[in-house]
Design goal:
Number of domains: 4
Shape: globular
Helix content: 40-55%
Low-confidence stretches: 1-8, 806-811
Largest sheet: 7 strands, parallel
CATH class of the largest domain: Mainly Alpha
Radius of gyration: 29 Å
Strand order of the largest sheet: 6-7-5-8-9-4-10
CATH topology of the largest domain: Hypothetical protein af1432
Strand content: 5-15%
Structural class: alpha/beta
Distance between the termini: 59 Å
CATH architecture of the largest domain: Orthogonal Bundle
Number of strands: 27
Length: 811
């Protein structure tokens, strides 16, 4: 298209394009300023300024200037030519050009900074420079047109002046009425390489020597989140318009300051639902403490207690977001669904390594409800899912449910939007669920994370049913307010029974015939029974034995982590629906995935020996919330190999803990207070290892490594791996599912069918020439196909691959 002119004959500067629809640079800037107004009107803005002693008016002016000038670099001749030709020019990044204009205007106008460093608004300039790319050491060092000059269109000065006047009225800031003009002649003499080396390099030099890294990281990421949040929300509005209006030119699209997601005013009422709170919940609803440890048994309303604490933190700390940090993807999905009923679907975000699939399913269900008798557009589903996944990733919604891994990675450049996400987290309260559940490596990293959160003054609550004293000491939690469900910890919901004989013999895989008879007898009597094994192979053998004994498929289920995502999701939903609906009799055979995933309860539980805290987690699904045992039993089997030795898989790294657990367990009716005491005995003298987080956090405070140096993918670390890797896995597509689809279909359909298998399976197949794996190309993506027989009922036929190596096993 040719140059578009306004009535005065000056060039019209464009800021956005989608198809043949253009938005003017001034229009986008005004929309972004309106979105900024919505963000700074939230309580978190005042809270953050008060927390760090920042003058609120200076912060407001600073944020306005950042948003006003963030896209000034689009006013270059290069960008305007590229947008009209519908080309992308990564060699001429507009944020870098914006840096030059912003520095000049800040200097000429004498404007304040939230934290002046060497007399320079360094953090504001960096937020503008990095609003499209993660700030890292080599940002814009390579791949740019080094000799290009800063060639701006003269019309940019008027765009800035009019936008500044608009901002002055919108925010009530008189200093913006007469923003100085950029000196384009001076700027034109500067080369892009000089801006990188002399400008960005200077900012790197003056910020590296600052010792208070948590303060530096907090203020920078908070400022960045305001810039990126405003830009993102304004761009979303243009995207919505582009879906309706295919061609033309538009100015600002928002009629007024938008209403963005908020916390319901009646949050307490929604949480309690006219129920009388437990005593400890009432304490949480009234305390002013920003750092809290909550110890309460399963089934006693820890989540509701945490929400009441959050409501209190909104009052006394002024937070405006809630982050729920969960141990697993499955627990994250379940918590999102639960919180959406309280806060509303639109207000709750979700993010983890497979959350895109969850968002797509949610989008499909919502569209089915709203559009009856119409064919669902899969492209629209995918678009909505991607958008929701991004909002969850950056944690911008009032409530976000994510994994603790994602929280950690946001502190160390672990993903492209890490600094944006950490900026949103600055005005949040964080709830860590089942904090005792993690391995020693993760606990070490969490210890350091809690230390940084305290230095950043970010309120957080740690929930646990059996948090041992060693963890309180090792994680330096002695100064936290301890709130305990003193009534609930005295409940005795079950009796422990220990058995020396194994449930399944590892090696010959024989299932204990006496236990089978007990299970069948309990089934005939109408019981709900759970059988928990420590490995997938054992769980499969028990399930197949029960099926052979005549238990119908509709009265039992097998659950473990080696199913495809879609099958595991279906199984979990089925179990919850059946048991919530009062299904009896019912048998669930599972691995450790049951420990923190499902809000369900049984009449009798058969389990292999595990560390004491893991047994406590499993027992949380037995006679849940009851005061007395009433014949409910937790029957614990000492696992053994065919040689008669203790089978420690998958707990070889904590063998001493497992041995201590067996010796400590008593055959009595048990309270959660007892389990906590036993945990203290079992973990006496236990120490956490040094962590990676402190060193990486310091490196990544502003610059440092890029996200692709920190980890390989969403689920695989590189420079930073917060979890122990007992058994590395690789995602594969079962060949049987590929045959069902005929090898056709979109890539997204096959992502649903990815299942994790141990890497040693692939190694063994290659080493022995078994031919069990092959590559398959679908679209532009290559997948690994597994030829081991697979069914949605049992998973892979693990008998075909043989013995697990001694090193460990995936649960």
């Amino acid at each position: 298209m040719g140059k578009r002119l306004n009535f005065s004959g000056w060039k019209m500067l464009f800021g956005k394009r989608e198809g043949e629809l253009f938005q003017t640079l001034e229009g986008h800037t005004r929309d972004a300023l309106k979105c900024l107004k919505a963000l700074v009107d939230r309580p978190g803005f005042k809270t953050f300024c008060r927390r760090w002693g920042i003058n609120e008016q200076d912060a407001l002016l600073s944020a306005c200037l950042c948003v006003l000038l963030h896209d000034a670099g689009k006013g270059t001749r290069y960008f305007q030519e590229a947008i009209e030709e519908d080309k992308h020019r990564p060699d001429l990044p507009h944020p870098l050009f914006s840096l030059a204009v912003a520095h000049q205007i800040w200097s000429k106008g004498g404007y304040p900074s939230v934290w002046p460093i060497k007399g320079t608004p360094a953090l504001e300039l960096l937020a503008i420079t990095a609003h499209h790319s993660l700030l890292w050491s080599d940002l814009y060092v390579h791949g740019i047109r080094r000799e290009a000059h800063l060639d701006f269109e003269l019309e940019l000065a008027e765009v800035i002046k009019r936008s500044a006047a608009f901002a002055s009225e919108l925010f009530g800031i008189p200093e913006l009425r007469n923003v100085p003009d950029p000196d384009f002649e001076t700027l034109k003499r500067i080369k892009l390489v000089e801006l990188v080396e002399g400008g960005l390099g200077f900012l790197k030099d003056i910020t590296q020597g600052i010792e208070d890294k948590p303060r530096l990281k907090s203020i920078y990421t908070w400022l960045l989140s305001l810039v990126k949040g405003s830009d993102m929300l304004a761009s979303r509005r243009f995207g919505e318009e582009a879906s309706r209006m295919r061609k033309g030119v538009v100015g600002d699209l928002l009629d007024s300051v938008p209403v963005i997601w908020g916390i319901p005013e009646d949050l307490r009422e929604r949480v309690l639902e006219d129920k009388t709170p437990y005593s400890y919940q009432s304490v949480l609803a009234e305390i002013d403490d920003p750092f809290v440890v909550l110890r309460a048994p399963c089934g006693r309303g820890k989540t509701e207690g945490a929400l009441l604490w959050f409501a209190r933190m909104m009052e006394v700390e002024g937070v405006d977001r809630l982050i729920f940090a969960m141990p697993t993807q499955v627990t994250s999905n379940a918590m999102r669904e639960r919180l959406a009923k309280i806060f509303g679907e639109e207000c709750v975000g979700l993010y983890h390594g497979r959350s895109f699939l969850e968002h797509r399913e949610i989008a499909r269900l919502i569209r089915e409800e709203r559009v009856e008798d119409e064919e669902i557009d899969p492209e629209l589903e995918i678009q909505l899912a991607r958008e929701e996944n991004f909002l969850g990733e950056v944690m911008i919604k009032p409530v976000t449910v994510t994994t603790v891994d994602h929280i950690l990675y946001s502190f160390v450049h672990g993903f492209r939007q890490a600094d944006f996400a950490l900026g949103c987290l600055q005005t949040a309260a964080i709830v860590f669920d089942e904090v005792h559940y993690y391995d020693r490596k993760m606990l070490s990293e969490l210890r350091e994370l809690f230390r940084i959160l305290r230095r950043m003054h970010i309120p957080h609550l740690l929930m646990s049913g059996t948090l041992p004293d060693f963890l309180i000491a090792e994680a330096e939690l002695e100064g936290y307010r301890l709130v305990e469900d003193e009534e609930g910890v005295e409940f005795r919901p079950f009796i422990i029974e220990k058995r020396e004989e194994p449930l399944v013999v590892r090696g010959n895989w024989e299932v204990n015939d006496g236990v089978l008879k007990e299970l069948l007898n309990g089934h005939e009597r109408g019981h709900v029974q759970f059988v928990i094994l420590n490995t997938v192979r054992k769980a499969q053998e028990v399930y197949k034995a029960l099926k052979k004994a005549g238990i119908p498929r509709e009265e039992m289920e097998l659950l473990h982590s080696r199913f495809c995502y879609i099958h595991r999701r279906e199984k979990e939903n089925r179990v919850i629906e059946l048991l919530k609906g009062g299904k009896k009799p019912f048998l669930l055979v599972s691995t450790q995935v049951i420990e923190v995933s499902l809000d369900i309860s049984c009449d009798r539980m058969f389990t292999e020996l595990a560390p004491m805290d893991a047994l406590g987690q499993r027992a949380g699904r037995l006679n849940r919330g009851a005061e007395d045992p009433d014949e409910h039993k937790l029957i614990i089997f000492r696992p053994a190999t065919v040689e008669g030795e203790l089978d420690l898989l998958p707990y070889k790294s904590v063998a001493e803990v497992v041995e201590r657990t067996w010796k400590t367990l008593a055959e009595v009716s048990v309270s959660y207070g007892d389990i906590k005491t036993w945990c203290d005995v079992v973990y006496d003298g236990y120490k956490l290892d040094p962590a990676q987080l402190p060193g990486l956090f310091e490196k990544c405070t502003l610059f440092g490594p890029n996200y692709d140096e920190i980890r390989f993918s969403e689920e695989e670390g590189k420079a930073f791996n917060p979890r122990e890797i007992g058994m590395p896995t690789v995602d594969v597509i079962p060949y049987d599912l590929l045959v069902e689809e005929g090898g056709e279909g979109e890539v997204i359909e096959y992502i649903w069918r990815l299942a994790p298998v141990p890497v040693w399976w692939v190694s063994k197949s290659n080493r022995e020439g078994l031919g069990l794996f092959r590559e398959w190309e679908i679209g532009r993506r290559r997948f690994l196909i597994c030829l081991i027989p697979y069914s949605s009922e049992v998973g892979f036929d693990e008998e075909r691959i043989g013995e697990e190596p001694i090193g460990g096993v995936m649960i």
